[in-house]
Write a structure and sequence with these properties.
- The protein is globular, with a radius of gyration of 15 Å.
- The longest helix is centred in the C-terminal third of the chain and has 15 residues.
- It is about 30% helix and about 25% strand.
- By secondary structure, it is α+β, with helices and mostly antiparallel strands.
């Protein structure tokens, strides 16, 4: 697998992988291509954006969109979205992708990755397997109105 800097143009191929992943279980979202393009482009517009794409034999198989967050204890990389094509999951590709991202982040003097995900999902299991912990002191709050 090869990782590259994410192309800021957001290809239809990338959108297809994103939509296919999130519009199916366990997430069951209802993304359409136009809304997904606007959603992902909003991350790319951030001046602190860092994005990666994953390729296997010239085939795009996934991406990671995140933001460098400057913090007094040391900079962090906040992952907004990370996804691998369904047909390439559960083969160690996600772990390899994460390891390569971490290597690149170390070169940027970033030593922490943060993110949000749903408890009890395959994503939660993936992060635990790859050494991510949960914070006992932080809580996610929201308000619908």
């Amino acid at each position: 697998m090869e990782i590259k800097k994410l192309d800021p143009l957001i290809s239809d191929e990338l959108l297809g992988i994103f939509i296919q992943g999130y519009n199916n279980p366990p997430w069951n979202d209802q993304w359409d291509i136009d809304k997904a393009r606007v959603y992902l482009k909003a991350f790319i517009g951030d001046p602190c954006f860092i994005g990666y794409s994953a390729y296997q034999k010239e085939l795009l198989i996934g991406a990671c969109l995140g933001t460098r967050r400057y913090w007094w204890k040391g900079d962090e990389y906040y992952i907004h979205e990370i996804f691998i094509d369904k047909s390439h999951q559960r083969q160690g590709i996600g772990t390899s992708f994460m390891n390569q991202i971490q290597s690149d982040l170390l070169q940027k003097n970033i030593r922490t990755i943060t993110l949000l995900t749903d408890r009890g999902t395959p994503a939660d299991e993936f992060y635990e397997k790859n050494g991510f912990g949960s914070s006992d002191r932080l809580v996610f709050k929201y308000k619908n109105f």
